Structure formats: C-alpha cells, structure tokens
Sequence to fold (485 residues):
Amino acid sequence: MNEIVFPNAYEGNEPYIFFSYSHRDSATVIPIVEKMQEVGFRIWYDQGIEAGSEWAEYISSHILNCSVFVALLSDNYDQSPNCHDEVHMAKTYRKDILSIYLPGYTAESLKGELQLWLGRMQAIFYERHPNIDSFVNALVQSKMLASTNKNAPESVVAKKPTTKASVPAPAQFSSSTETLLKRVALFLENGEWSSADVYCEKVLDIDPENAKAYIYKLLAQLHGKKESDLAFCNTSLDKLPAYKTALRFADDETAARLMEYNRKVNARLAAREKERQELARKEQERKRQAEQAMQELERQERERQRKATQKRLEYESLLSERDNAKKTVDRHNREKTRLQNEINAKLKEIAQMNNFKKMRTTAIAVLALALFNVIMLISLTSTVTGGKIFFLIAGLIAAFIVSIKALKVSGMPGGLVFLNIPTYGIFSIVTAFVSLSRSKKFQGLRGAKDQELVVLENQLKQNEAKINAAWADYDEAQKKLDSYR
Fold:
C-alpha cells in the first residue's frame, strides 16, 4: 500500500478553511485537499500542527480563527468523539459550516447530535460528481468558500460577517418586530397558543433570522408560557425544527441557554426512560415469576394426579387381592362341602358294613342249627317218640328264626324260608355258607372304605388349613383397604 503524502497546511492571517475529518478517511480527504490547494484555497487541517504542540489548544485556536468550517462526513467521522467536539466548537463560535458527504455517506446516515448540528446546514455530496475535478469546481463556485480562495471568480466573491451576532438588525423593521414579539409574549401568557404562533409567523415574515420568534414559536408549539418552561417539556427539543432554527440564529448566550434547556429535558427524559425500562424489567420479572409459579402449580397438580392415580391403582389392586382371597375362601368352602359329603357317604357305607360280626355269628348259629336239624331228622327216621317230636319242633322253629335273620343279614329273599321241611336242612346249610361268605366280603370292603375315609379326612384337614390361610389373606387385604379409606 502506497504511503499517503500530506500537503502543508495553511498558516497565516488570510481567511482559510478548517478541514474537520477522520484520519481513517485520509486516503479520500488528502486528494481533495491537494486539488483545492491547486485552485487557490487556503486550508488548515491537523497535519499542520507543529511538533510538540498541544493538540487541543491548536485545534481550538484554528477553529476560532477560521472563516469556514468544513466537515467531511463519513461513518468514521460519525464514530469519532474528536470530530464531534470540533463540530460543537464551530457551532458554539457561530462559524459558517459546510458539510461534505464523502462516498458511502448520505443525509439519512446522520443521527444524534450530528443530525442536530449539521442536518440543516449547506452540504455538497461527493458522489454526485463524476470526478474530483467536477467536485472541486463546485466548491470554487460556492460563495461561502469564496473568501478562502485567493483565485476565486469575481462573481462569487462577497463580503460576509464571520458570526451571526455581528449582523445588525435593519432599523426600518426593528421596532415593528419588537411590538409583535410583545404581543406574542402576551398570547403565550394567556395560553392563546394559536394566536402566538400566527404572530410569530408575522415576525418571521419581517425578520426570518429572528431567534426570539423561533423560541416563542417553540413555546406555542409546546404550550409553554415563558422561556424557562422549555426545560420542563416532555419532548426532546433537538427533535423540533423550531428549536434547531432558534439555535442557529441565536447569540451565544441564548444558544447556551437553549442547549441547557435541551440538556435538562433530555436528562429528565432519559431518567424517565430509565424508570420506564426499570418498570418494564420489574413487570417482566413479575410475569416471569408468575409464569414460574403457574408452572410450579401445574407441576404440583400433575404430581397430585399422579399420586392419586397411583393410590387408586393400589386401592384397586388391594380390592382385587381381597376379592381374590374371598373367592379362594369360597372355593375352599365348596371343596370342604364336597369332602364332607363324600365322608358322610363313606361313613354311611361303613355303617352298613358294621354288621359283619353279627353276620358271622348268625352264620355259625345257622350251621349249628342245621347240624342239629340233620341229627334230629336222622333220629326221627329211626324211632319216633313224644320227646323226639318236641325237640324236632323246637329245632325247626329255632332254625326257622335263625334262617330268617341270616337271610335278612345276607340279603337273600325271605320267601326261601317257606320251602318244605324236607329241604329245610339243605337250605339252612346253604344259608349259613352264604352268610359266612357275605360277611367275609363285607369285611374286605370295610378295610378299603376305611382307607378312603382316612384319605378324605386328611384332605378335609388340608382344605380347612387352606380356608384359614385364605381368610387370613382376606383379613390382611381388608385392613389395607381400611387404611386407604
């Protein structure tokens, strides 16, 4: 990158231009300085500071003594506090100001205090010219810069005062404007804002640069009754055209007062804005806390519902457990009933078999009687006597009775008793043998039934133990249910 060569800055007593620029724009600004010096302009810029000199002192002295203050505006200029200070000083000393918009910077780019100070000032846009020669030629034709150009054309040379404070008011309309301004003051005092504004316009028709008329016009717009009321308005003054114009044409003392009013207004508005932001922050914090509280309530409600669902499920589980225990009890009771019925049936069968001893005794008696009858029949066939007949009849009767009993026990038909006497002996013997065989059969069955009865009784005991266990489960489930209720 080529090193920039800075031309010498003007030093002397002739009118000169003060160039205010950002060092970051040197590559654009220095060619403009060179071209303007070539056509005769006297320019001072900070490269002319002598070695070891104090920067602030030299800057302020050259602004104070310059004829025209030229601000070369750019984004870099806007961001430079030193450039802002230079513009502020030029405004304070009521210097003629010319704004040059460097490439890439427009009037819309102005903001803040630069917009207040330079927004309504004369300006030239570099980009509107095809080349630097065309741009410098436009500067040569400027009447504002004519006094600083030793080669300026006669058509643009004009004598201009260096400050607005030195411009005398023409005698022919001085008294009339003073009278009108007194009317305006009375209108303001009475709150007749529209009338005050109309008379301010009348003053400005006579004297367009009357700063007091612009101040009164500003008061009418803000509904203020006296100048000091400007410090208490609710709108920043630097946003109002009347304030800017009043500041432009006011003398140093009045301009200082107006800027002080504006400073107080801006300070109050800033404090109010800060308070508003603080209230907004607190409101936002309150909403955040309320939202957190709502979320916490929702979380607690979800937790409550979860616990309630869990408790309901546990209750239903215990209820099901209790019902299952009751069903188990009922099932075991039915099994108990069945077993008891079977035991009763077995006991009944066993009761029927308990006569086997009697059956055996009867069978022996029947055999004895049958044997007796046989002996008697044999004896009858040999010799018949009265005693033999008695014994014969008694033996037949006893045999008959015993045979009937044996037949009843053995289950044989009772009609067989009425067989004829000759066959009775054979019948008695048969009956006896049947009774003996029957009693043996029942004796074998009784042993099997006793075994079955023992098994059933054991099953019944086990079933009763199961019933007791099921009832214990039922009672435990019922206690748990009662605790949930």
